[in-house]
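Project outcomes to date are best conveyed with an example. Our students and postdoctoral researchers have been running inverse folding experiments weekly, and each run begins with a structure described purely in tokens. The record below, which covers 239 residues, was selected by the lab manager from last quarter's runs and is presented without edits.
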């Protein structure tokens, strides 16, 4: 197992080695599930990481990154985007509607669509700049009151509203409750996705991405297993 103990200043060689290990474990989980390794995309969660860690991951060939906060991501990636072929940025944290325009400008995919008001804001932001906005619907599979995400029974209505607003709904995302086995939540997300004809499932993090792959994840979000733990303030979604 890869240690997730605090290591905020990993040398470049350590980041590259960790990345290689995670990729190997993804491939092994895919083979065990009868899937090809290229069916699963690794999203490196780069939130709160120093530039040196990001540079190390980029040097090792990583091109898909997940960020939690728009402003932080702007400072990290604003000057890098033009120089990196194949770079994909995915917003994986809660989004305030007043940040929709900034998010649309920076990110390739918004994984945290969870309410009609946000769908409308993203659609309006995309229309202003002539960009088709790609989204995932975040599902609160555990119905946790403190957590973002639409309830499972309301997913269909939000998908319909997003599609009517010309958003491209590619799939679903979830973060299972920390104190519950993740498997049933991953199974529920897969069931909802199939019901709505969606192919992308962003589920699984450092502690459970291999389980997520067994349940059909197409994208896994891995941070501490690549970079070590770093603490940073959380930004709630407030309209």
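After processing, the design step wrote out the following sequence:
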């Amino acid at each position: 197992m890869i240690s997730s103990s605090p290591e905020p200043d990993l040398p470049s060689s350590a980041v590259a080695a960790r990345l290689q290990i995670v990729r190997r474990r993804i491939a092994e989980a895919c083979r065990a599930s009868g899937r090809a390794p290229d069916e699963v995309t690794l999203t490196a969660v780069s939130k709160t990481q120093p530039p040196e860690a990001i540079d190390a991951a980029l040097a090792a060939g990583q091109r898909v990154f997940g960020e939690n906060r728009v402003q932080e991501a702007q400072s990290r990636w604003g000057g890098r985007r033009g120089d990196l072929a194949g770079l994909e940025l995915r917003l994986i944290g809660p989004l305030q509607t007043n940040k929709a325009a900034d998010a649309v400008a920076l990110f390739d995919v918004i994984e945290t669509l969870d309410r009609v008001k946000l769908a409308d804001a993203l659609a309006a932001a995309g229309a202003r700049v002539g960009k088709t906005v790609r989204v995932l619907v975040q599902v609160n599979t555990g119905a946790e009151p403190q957590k973002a995400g639409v309830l499972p029974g309301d997913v269909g209505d939000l998908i319909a509203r997003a599609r009517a607003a010309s958003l491209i709904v590619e799939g679903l995302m979830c973060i299972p409750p920390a104190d519950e086995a993740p498997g049933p939540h991953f199974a529920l997300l897969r069931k909802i996705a199939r019901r709505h004809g969606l192919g992308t499932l962003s589920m699984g993090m450092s502690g459970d991405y291999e389980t997520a792959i067994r349940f059909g994840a197409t994208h896994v979000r891995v941070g501490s297993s690549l970079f070590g733990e770093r603490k940073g303030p959380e930004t709630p979604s407030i309209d």
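The chain has a mean pLDDT of 91. The first strand starts at residue 41 and ends at 45. The training component of this project remains on track.
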